[in-house]
Amino acid sequence: MRDIVLISDPRVTAIPVEESGERLADVRGRLRVDGRMADPEGAFAHLREGLLARLEGAQTQLPPGYRLLVVEGYRPLVTQQRIFEEYSAELRLVFPEMSPEEICVAASRYVSPVEVAPHTAGAAVDLTLCTEDGDELDMGTPLNATPEQSDGACYTDASGLSSEARHHRGLLGTALRSAGLVNYPTEWWHWSYGDRYWAMTTGAASAVYGPTSV
């Protein structure tokens, strides 16, 4: 497996943000949305307009019969902080020998520290593939499976996947990359545009989306 730059890496955190001011847009009615991560306010179904437009473009690149299924987009800062703290606490129980700094790095494989989190900018989307009828396709692991739960199979380029799961990940990746999105390599379902990780991956001088609110 190729070397992975985590989102907590200084090469990512040092990238500046030149906020574009672009609004958040509702995904519902434009792409298929799953409600498993829904919040009462509906924040989960919002993305920056530029990212949503690119997802609509990616949808057209999929073979007939395949559809993008959006599970979570925008995430409020308080929610991001809670998820990071809860996962860090889980890691401390499993790896009591780790220092606080090591826990922070390990946690960033699965959830971003709040200060660089692309979901809080509306710049990241967690999504999968489904059929025309809405049946989810085999991607090798459930969406949001942790590295511990999946024995590392949540990594996009993980070995040992079935040929079907590998094919589906390939279809998803080809469509999204063609639209300008980048993947966080520890999570096959996490793709972004305009955030610091996107800037680091593409060589952009700055991110164009910073923390925002619905």
- Give a quick account of the main beta sheet: strands, pairing sense, barrel closure: 5 strands, mixed
Structural class by secondary-structure content: alpha+beta
| Overall pLDDT level | 95
| Global Rg | 16 Å
The portion of residues forming beta strands comes to 5-15%
Count of DSSP strands: 7
Poorly predicted regions = none
Across the major sheet, the strand order is: 2-4-5-7-6
Q: SSE order, as H and E?
A: HEEEHEHHEHHEEH
Termini separation (Å)?
Answer: 38 Å
Total DSSP helices: 7
Helix content: 25-40%
* Silhouette: globular
What is the gist of this entry?
The protein has 214 residues and is of the alpha+beta class.
What does this molecule look like?
The protein is an alpha+beta fold. The protein is 33% helix and 13% strand. It has helices spanning 10-13, 49-61, 77-94, 100-107, 147-150, 163-178, 196-202, and strands at residues 24-26, 32-33, 46-48, 66-72, 124-131, 182-183, 190-192. It has a five-stranded mixed sheet, with helices on both faces. Strands 1-3 form a two-stranded antiparallel sheet. A hairpin with a 6-residue loop joins strand 6 (182-183) and strand 7 (190-192). Helix 2 (49-61) packs across helix 6 and helix 3 packs across helix 4. The longest helix has 18 residues, at 77-94. It starts with 9 loop residues before the first helix and ends in a 12-residue tail after the last helix. The model has no long low-confidence stretch (mean pLDDT 95).
